[in-house]
Amino acid sequence: MEDREYILWMSLLKTISVKNFYDLYKHFDSMATLYHCSQEELSRCNLLNFAQIQNIVSSKSDGSLEKYLEMLQQKKIKYLTINDNSYPFILKNIYLPPPVLYYYGKIEEVPFEHSIALVGSRNASYYGLKMSEKIAFELASLGITVVSGMARGVDSMAHVGALKGGGKTVAVLGNGIDIIYPKENSKLYKEIMENGLVLSEYPPEVQPMPYNFPRRNRIISGLSIGIVVVEATAKSGSLITAKYALEQGREVYALPGNVNNKNSTGTNLLIKDGAKLVTSCKDILDDVFPMFSSKKEELEPFDEMNLSKEEKEIIKYIKMGYWDADKLCQKLNLPINQIQTTLTTLEIKGRIAIYKGNYFIK
């Protein structure tokens, strides 16, 4: 067997934790050495209990690794071990990095040296969803990798924004790589597979159990230079990701929100506790990627994406306070029926809303 197969074998033993794995690796220098130890030699290392020793010994002769490798091949699942050159260097430096990563996509094409994670509420507000998409779009447009967890809400919109921006996005799953969760993200999952990276430390067929996700969060922060918490309640799992980020020496950013919205309680608390306030992609660029700041001015603004020249003009003037059709008509010197048609189109596109006869940016 190759070195990576010995590592894969050890990672699959149910009685061996990640900490056990690294303690054993340090003691034996390699998993190949451990594999060829007798039961007596394993007992003498004083790192294993009886059940663990029995698990190791029985697994050598049951043919399970060969079957497992065959299953990975059938499902076209690729894997990396901690010793592989393609294993993200940024992740190797966290406490107890995953010994094995399963993935779909081209990991060697993902620039982890320029990566930001976006996380937040599954039940996000319209504001949270649009800001997640907007920030991710702008980061990806500049070549910055967007990392998230493919959960409902903020995570999904971060991936959507990154894909729209033509950049790379990484979905870190809290279940086996071959399980799509939530189910409604099937199309998104396939798009990320084709244009980014889907990865997990969990073996195939592992179900999305609640206790998997906090552990998964250390990988989201570990793959990133910094994390942005877009919306979060006071007890949100996103705050666990922020905690991991701090422990790993990553930057923590938070989007401020309405003090009366429970989904902003967590982000506002993070800001009070010292997280950096973010209102746009530029705040992140200026802080950790100054080399990208000048490039941002060359990009088409997210708010103007897929808009005609006339629609962009109307958006610009609504932002300046020209809220009704008559004022826009005077400012743009266009027929009222043409203005009204364009306003209706912008409403259908979800770019503006009308309230008591006035138009506002959504």
UniProtKB/TrEMBL annotation:
Smf/DprA SLOG domain residues: 78-287
Span of domain DprA winged helix: 304-357
Highest taxon of the lineage: Bacteria
Biological process annotations from GO: DNA-mediated transformation
InterPro entries: DprA (IPR003488), DprA_WH (IPR041614), DrpA_SLOG (IPR057666), WH-like_DNA-bd_sf (IPR036388)
UniProt similarity note: Belongs to the DprA/Smf family.
NCBIfam families in alphabetical order: dprA
UniProt-recorded name of the protein: DNA processing protein
